[in-house]
Specification:
This protein has twelve helices and two strands; from the N terminus they run ααββαααααααααα. It starts with 6 loop residues before the first helix and ends in a 5-residue tail after the last helix. It has helices spanning about 5-60, 65, 85-115, 120-130, 135-155, 165-185, 190-200, 205-215, 215-230, 235-240, 260-265, 275-305; strands at about 70-75, 80. The protein has two domains: about 5-60; about 70-305, MetI-like (MetI-like fold).
Length: about 300
Amino acid sequence: MASKPSVFDSFAIRAKRGLTARGFSESAVKWICFICALVSVFTTFGIIVVLVSESLPFFKQVPITDFVGSEWAPAREHPSFGILPLVTGTLLITLGAGLIAVPVGLLSAIYLSEYAHPKFRAILKPALEILAGIPTVVYGYFGLFFVTPLLKSIFPSTQATNAASGAIVVGIMILPLVSSLCEDAISAVPRALREGAYGLGATKREVITKIVVPAGLSGIMASFILALSRALGETMAVALAAGSNPVLTFNPLKSIQTMTAYIVSTAKGDAPTGTIKYQSLFAVGITLFVFTMIMNMIAQKLVKKFRQVYS
């Protein structure tokens, strides 16, 4: 007759079952995460394949030397596809937005992290992040009907749609991204560094400028590049506020056209599939993709260069 298992045997059986169930759940989570990572990678490769395959017919008709020209006129009887006007328009918006969002966002993050009272921070930070939830088309009309008249009152030569207006509204749009990421990077700096600096007699300003900001520089620089990448790909606000005039100019008071604005204006259905104008959408798209990829690579290198590891 089989003997009854002891109390220790029962505990051992239960522990073995628990370890088996735990191992199964850990393995399931591992494979789910792996599948999600694969989906992200395959999506990126899918975008690249579509852009390359659709833009190759365009570059068979338009040489690269013509594509980097200074005149963009795809609707003419003898079209011209020099992308430099679209590139300069995109850079005007991106750099202008950066000039607004980077200093204001960094200073806002420093205030939230180092100066603001916790109760005030709990109100101010969500209020600042509300800006990220406003639809981009609203920003476009804000630039068109508020920012542009304001600029005209200061600079009478300002055109009805202009690069400065687009840069201002895009700068306001990416401000919460810069502020939130910089605040996270600054808050991650160990408190021991601050206390050590205070113990040596440093002032609040010296601690922030010489200890905290340099220690969180990798995260701060990454937030700058990511915000500029966001500005690079903005569409509706720029299309409404900056206009659709593809001219090669560096005057922010003039109407311009960005790469994204050209894509959205041409993809409305007036470019029949298979035509060179339709194929130009993908040529512009792959150019924009290259710019974004370069900026993300720069962000990764900056993070590695300035990264501080604390134990």
